[in-house]
Amino acid sequence: MTLIYAGLSLGAVYALVAVGYNIVFIASHSFNFAQAQLMMVGAFVAYLGYVTLKLPTVIVIIMAMTAVMLVAAFEERIAVRPVADHQTQLITTLGFGTVLTGLVQVIWGTQPLQVPFAGGDEVLTFLGGRMFPDELALVVFAVALVVAISAYTQRRLNGLALVAMSQDEEAATLRGVSVRKLTFAAFAVTGLLSGVMGVLIGPKTYAVATLGAALALKGFVALAIGGFGSMYGGLIGGFAVGLVEQHVARYFGSGFSNLSVFAILLLVLLIRPTGLFGRVQERTV
Amino acid sequence: MKARLGLVAGLLAVGSLLLTACGGGTADEPPADQTPYRVMISGGSDAGAFTNQLKTGVAAAKAATEVVNAAGGVNGRKVELIESQDNADATKALSNLRAQIAKAKPDAYLTAAGSGVSVAVAGILQQNEIIFLDSGNAAETNKPSTNPYAFHLAAPFKTVIESYLPELQAKSYKKVGVLHGNSAYAKQFGATATETYKAKGYEVNAVEYDAKALDMIAQISALQAFKPDVVVFNGYGAPVGYVLKGFTKLGWNVPLLGDTSVTATPLVTQLPPDGMVGTPEVANLKLEIARSLDAATASAATKKAVEAMKAQGQIFGSLNNCFNYDAIMLLAAAGNNAKSSAPKELTAALLKPEVNANAGTAVYPAYPYLADNHQPQLSADSHIFVAPSVMKDGQVGHTGN
Question: Which residues of B touch A114 (CB under 8 A)?
């Protein structure tokens, strides 16, 4: 059971990266390849708040959300908005992520830093398995976040506008949706959420400059398995990647762990090229 | 007329020969024994995870340069340290070395982080007969028959692995679990440990983990199924934390013996909140250290070296990052013994036990090299195991820690 919990908590981390990718993808049809680095910055800000400044949890969360939101908004202004096509945005956001990694190394160094968890660090035993409180919080947060975002996009006007943009940008513009404003807002919201994600991920992974690179690829695989644009797909894709990775490493060795994850990705894409929950928009011309 | 012309030509010829003989080269270049003894070092300040290692390696070389120059240099030649700003990038290091050879050939070469640069520069150093004291322990730099001027500085695998044997025997362990990463070094660690302990009659099971993974529960569970009496493990940086957290999460109270790279991870040698010293995660852990890393029992030479290095900058990690201090001390001792700074004489002197044992080195008291093996032949008791404690100035066990 401990192995399943480990897979789920790791999967939750990947799912959160996938959620970040998805929000930007829905709003702008582009991938923000600096998403994992934004979460990494969140983890470092959490370390700064908890350890260096010794602030209470609420203030640390607000600080992380604000700081990463500003970074994400800045990213939209310099790495996304000036670039016309989505393909080039892949490169510019990747470059922005690399800059973030470098800056973090300059400020906090290259060694892993421990980020405390407000819920304590005593191991919990549940149904015969063991997990840390921060891991439980990660799983709960990932599920709650996906449910909340899905509900928002289905029931709130701004959420519907986002979906409209993702389906037909031109038509949405004609209906009065400000595409530019919503894209900017999507980046800012992603930053806001990445701040909270950083506070939650830090206790499990440490605040370490290499975190962005470690998360970016697996988060993308989770998204591809689940289906681009699908929040529930990203969540299930994340859990699938985490569980497969852990079980294969346990029974076949860590050498097969990554291999199996990519084998499953290939299999899913062969059967359903849009991912498990992705949708294809067909047009009759 | 013909005879007078011949006399003038003869005088001119003799004159020019005399001028050449007396000059010994260009007018502004000093004689060979007065030129600085040039030591080039691969350094920099932006090498990702290796930055601290690089900075400390260069600071160690600078400290030794001051000590050696204050004592008269290498056979009377003052040491000049030339830092190659390559950030441990092999291509850049090679290009900088070529440029330096074209400008003014270095007499010796040092590295400060990993073995990538060592592999890249070994060939060109050999061609140019430049002494190479390699803290990266690349295989290319221990081939005395083809490359007589290259020597290793770090403890060979054999020593690192065999140092566990007294600990295993003292605690009467029979089954040994080995947990190691997937880098070239870590794989070699796993393979050598398995082979060595099996040869000594232990039951061994080795499990590899991916150093980029964020959770080690799967690998630790696989090892737990083998029910070992003790787990020997290797790792550096965040994976060390994931491994230790994994044991705590599983509630598995098995004794853990971390290798020298675990010791070099600040996480296990700092107090909370930055580190884990004193926490349940390290309750079962013992760290492998060179004897010199124990501040309480360190030799006078080590203490002197630590003071000299502190004056040059912070010592990041353990004294294991300071092999370049020993490198320059060894060069000076060899040069003074051989009364020469020529590579052939100097390397011959390095093989003499009375030279490398009295060089005033910091990390190991002696670097016993053999004519056919340029790895330091350290004894198994040159390393010991200690409980995690706060590391300060590259050493553990400070009074008051």
Answer: 241, 267, 272-276
